[in-house]
Amino acid sequence: MTDEGERVAEGAEVDAVMRGDVPDGNPPSAVPREALPESAYYNRAGADELRARLASETLLAQGPTGTVLMSESGAADVPAAFWNLAEPQTVTRVHELYVAAGAEVLITNTFQASAPALERDQIDPSVAEVNRAAVDDARAARPQLLLGSIGPCGLEWFKRDTPEFRACRAAYREQALALLTAGVDGLLLETFTSIRDLEPALAGLLDVADGMPVLVSFAVDDEGNLLGDGLGIEGAVVYAEKHGAAAVGINCCSLAAAEVSVPRLVRAARTPVMARPHTGLPERTPEGDLVWPEDPEAFARAAATWRDAGVALVGACCGATPRTTAAQADALAEE
Predict the structure, then answer these.
(1) Neighbouring C-beta atoms of residue 133, cutoff 10 Å
(2) By C-alpha distance, which of 38, 14, 191 is closest to 117?
(3) 308, 268 Cβ separation under 8 angstroms
(4) β 247-251/273-276 pair status
């Protein structure tokens, strides 16, 4: 089968997963620029640099902020977004450690900072306040590039053109607008496990992106299939690119899953590819603290392999620390 034939087949697989409920190939309608005055504050220069460097380099992203904060003594059950306003100097310190370790791309501490997530975690400040604080905390570390993290909002929907779908889309739109007006260089939808979860997220972001890059990253199992709906990573890539993604990748999966998925991603993708696996599952100490396993050397070897395969953005997800980032930086510096 030709490459084009494979992509057609993968597109058909997506349609089957959605049982015919996939929109046509056109991205969701964006808000007209004249109706989006906030777009005047978007960081266009940063977006241009992000696109150019993704197309020509292998960039090193920071590791997680949330699990580093959760590993602080007594903080295992404190929501990560709470720290952005309550302890901004601590969030900035984590970012600074990643920059010192060699990270070229920082990621905001906003994975769970949509309105539904903040309400669930009983965080009172507004979406705009929490997300702007996160951007300010990261910018204080003087990153080369900054992505605004957006994770699944937690709302369920079953049919389009229903209040549930519109609420999902609106939640993503609100967080995206907050991050873009605060000055991120691009948006990162990460840890999405199904096309159903991704659809309102991409729609909401594209409502307000106005040309700013939207990167999409999936969580997969050790077979390279999405954790939620079982769709192969190739089909997920086809859907994301067809609906406006500027880069595609995997995160918050095992290193073994990444090793299976990355070659398939590189073959399937027409946009830059990302890889950021987690380090393993945490254990709770007798004192109640969370401890994650970490193998910086294994992640360093993987980073070099992925660079040679043409991956544009590498890093590590939950459980990693600046030790892993530093090991990856050393590996990437070697020819």
Answers:
(1) 23
(2) 191
(3) no
(4) parallel
